[in-house]
Amino acid sequence: MKRHFALALTGASGAIYGLRLTDELLKAGHDVTLLISSAGFAVLKEECGLDWADDPALPERLRLHFGAGEELNYYGEKDLLAPIASGSRAPDAMVVVPCSMGTLSRVACGNSGNLLERVADVMLKENRPLLMVPRETPLNAIHLEHMLKLARLGVRIVPAMPAFYQHPETLDDLVDFVVGKILDALGVENALFRRWGNPS
After folding, report:
1. 37 labeled part of a ligand binding site
2. According to the annotation, is 197 in a ligand binding site?
3. Which residues hold FMN (predicted)?
């Protein structure tokens, strides 16, 4: 069944996870709305060489990058009039990947200062799946308290922690494990990593 996912990239390290997840959701036939924070653009440039900030033609550029059509949409973080800012047009699920501790904190406190945070708030108030993929390390007590608060509200916290029982040989293997676990949490079938006890 086709679903609509909001996917937010913030200023934490690990932009590759967001890009790979976008690609996998589109390949699975789902609709994706991308949201990128200003710090997220900086990380995309630093880690992936993608200079997408301040591009007025970004929706078309993203579709070209992912080989997608109308199933891929993008809204700027200041566009609080975007359809997904309303509970009546809420996506089926939202993933914040990578999730910065600043974003996690503001969502935990109900501080919706931009579209990304507003959509996360919509997911909470509409009782729809919200996943956050933090990458920060080490974690301090404030980080942990905010994660616990969100987990108690039903948010799935899926840390970017690859396992090694699959004997990864490349960076892609490590990325695919994390993305596969996110897809598992979303209920999207995938074969991105070797399951425990499966020799193939």
Report:
1. yes
2. no
3. 11-13, 37, 100-103, 135
Instruction: Retrieve residue 8's tokens.
Output: 């937010």
> Does 160 belong to an annotated binding site?
no
CATH class of this structure's domain 4-186: alpha beta
Say if residue 101 carries a ligand binding annotation: yes
13 labeled part of a ligand binding site:
yes
Confidence of residue 200 (pLDDT cuts 50, 70, 90): low
**CA 78 – CA 101 distance, rounded (Å):** 20
Q: Which residues on adjacent β-strands are paired with residue 156?
A: 131
> Residue 1 annotated as binding?
no
Beta bridge partners of 4: 31
Task: Tell whether residue 102 is among the known ligand binding residues.
Answer: yes
* Residue of 42, 138, 31, 146 whose CA lies nearest to 89: 31
The per-residue b/e assignment along 161-184, b for 16 or more CB within 10 angstroms, e otherwise, is ebeeebebeeeebbbbbbbbbbbe
